[in-house]
């Protein structure tokens, strides 16, 4: 796996969850807390890009039955989603939950569970050459508000697993990070400042996604707020 990891690595905010590589701390007394939420296993595939979609579903909106040519992992940012893979039980995904949509099986439901509130979720699709983001059995009859985020190039890496973590930084907390694993991430709550090497700092608000290309990249993450925590969801590719 990851046969190109020596010449190309993806590192993001995400790596701050890996305690073994942290050199900073969230405050004087403790390091940042991290929790593993999910592991998605699938057949090894040569991933050339990760395409990201930010979906906003109106109250009561129903997703058409569809399939994924590429496995997808994601995060529910707002509201509740009714989710069902063919042959499996229906489940409810709430804000803060992560999910895995396998390649192949029909996705029977991915619907907004609320008749009064919006639902927002993000999909990260691990695509091989020329794979589509999604395949509908029939053309959607209702407009789908999908807001594309930057596609992340992975240079034909062999991947068969994604580990998903959540990490919180206390108010004004900071952490220095470095990782050898390909990692994708997004800011789920709050605002952070990211500095990579000698580059200028980037200020990144909730809903932003990241990738830091280059072998042995290092970065510093700072919670930009003195009022609220910053929360990061990370996807480690193996």
State the name of the first-level CATH class of the largest domain.
Mainly Beta
Low-confidence stretches: 1-30
Range of helix content: under 10%
CATH superfamily placement of the largest domain: Jelly Rolls
How would you describe the shape?
globular
Q: Specify the CATH architecture of the largest domain.
A: Sandwich
For the largest beta-sheet, the strand count, sense and barrel status come to: 8 strands, antiparallel
User: Separation of termini?
Assistant: 7 Å
Q: Note the beta-strand portion.
A: over 45%
What structural class results from the helix and strand content? mainly beta
For this structure, the quaternary state is single chain
Total of domains = 2
pLDDT averaged residue by residue: 84
Q: What is Rg?
A: 18 Å
The H-and-E topology, N to C, reads as: EEEEEEEEEEEEEEEEEEE
Tell me the CATH topology of the largest domain. Jelly Rolls
Task: Give a quick summary of the entry.
With 238 residues, this protein is mainly β.
